[in-house]
Amino acid sequence: MKYANLSFKNILILVFLIAATSSVLPDVSRAEDHLLTLETAISTALENNPDIRMTRTLIKKAEASVKKTEAVFRPRVTAFSELSAGDAPSAFLFKTIDQRKLPPDIDFNDPGSFTNMEVGIMAGINLYNGGKNRLEKQLAQKKLADRTALALQTENDRIAAVIQMFFTALKAREYTFIARTSVQTVEEQLDMMTVRFRGGSVLKSDILSLKVRLAEAKKKMVESKNTFASTLTALATLLGHTPGHSFSLDPDPDPDSTCAVTFPVSIDQAWALALEKRPELHRAKQQIDMARTAVSLAASGYRPRVDLQARWYMDSDDLSYNRSNDNYTAGLNVAWNLFDGFATRAQIAEARHELERALEARKKIRMQIYQDVKQAYLQHENAQQRLLVARSGVEMAEASLHIVKKRYNGGAEPVTRYLEAELDRTRASINKAAAFYDDKTAEIEIARAIGTLSVLWSQEK
């Protein structure tokens, strides 16, 4: 029994230690949840971005509007009940006759008072409304197509913004790494020169120059960190995160493989593709069709309206309804507005002016899209040239710093020359990082200008 109790105590102690240890270990799953890759950034934006969510809500609203316009093609059925009392001769006669209780010796001028309780069902359907119902349904359907194109346009723009902001954040993080490397390089050189200064082989002015350069490098590092933090905040806003949400970027992203886009070689081919794919042009077409439909809808005011209505009911003065005394009426009503004070003519003129505006808007959109495509290609070409120059510049700056550092350590170069070489290396590294991510951003801008970005991402999903 003693050994059994001891074994049980050991088990309890072991369980306690395991629980205590697990409580202080890092939450790996939570850390992975906060790790943001480009794929998760885009999928999060598609799900949480307020602009995208609002456009999807507009689609649902337009779908409901289409269903509402379809309701006029179906009959309307209403159950009703009425309790009335009075001594008006006309009401007395009609209600009493409907009750089948009109006295044979009634004085029509003074029939007396009455009470009536009526229950029944009314039904009606519009047979013709000058084509207005059909046109209103078409207008709602075109508005639904417009809202769908708006959603694609918003997704195309927001995906481009997320990718570009993600690259901007990576670029800011690269700047921070370059600044930190610069600080470490100057600190190492300062430590070495401080030792030599104590030995009397280095001037104090060299030490002061290195300290000044170190202060500048630390200032650049602080600025880079602040830029990186502000970029992450902007990225979180695009993703639809609440204020205060924190995450970390993918430590080893590969923009070449994670966000590869294809696009035509020439601007003319891209322009032709943009005319087919850009959601803005689809919206412009829908708005022109909506305006033309609105003209026809306004002209429907010149045509008649035909309604079929039926009514079945029973009347009683004491709730003793009798099916043999029920009543019904049915009628076909035709109404034609012969003069409405020129209101219909004014509505037609208003709709035609809106059609003219929609046609001009499409011309403007076409010109804007061509400008977007051309500017995107020019930016891409410029970024590629800058990247080639920046890569060779980094190689030359690294080699120059290596040579100058050796000569400076040997006393053949002044400290100012070493500082210039170190600064040139830092600038070249920054230019290379900027050119690399600007090139990727330019590729994304081409896909956005053509209008294929949201479609490509949907296919990948």
UniProtKB/TrEMBL annotation:
Residues 1-26 form the signal peptide. Keywords: Cell outer membrane, Membrane, Signal, Transmembrane, Transmembrane beta strand, Transport. The keyword tRNA processing does not apply. One of its GO terms (molecular function) is efflux transmembrane transporter activity. InterPro entries: OMP_efflux, TolC-like. This is TolC family protein. The keyword Signal applies. The lineage of its organism: Bacteria, Pseudomonadati, Thermodesulfobacteriota, Desulfobacteria, Desulfobacterales. It is found in: Cell outer membrane. Belongs to the outer membrane factor (OMF) (TC 1.B.17) family. Its main location: membrane. GO terms for cellular component: cell outer membrane; efflux pump complex.
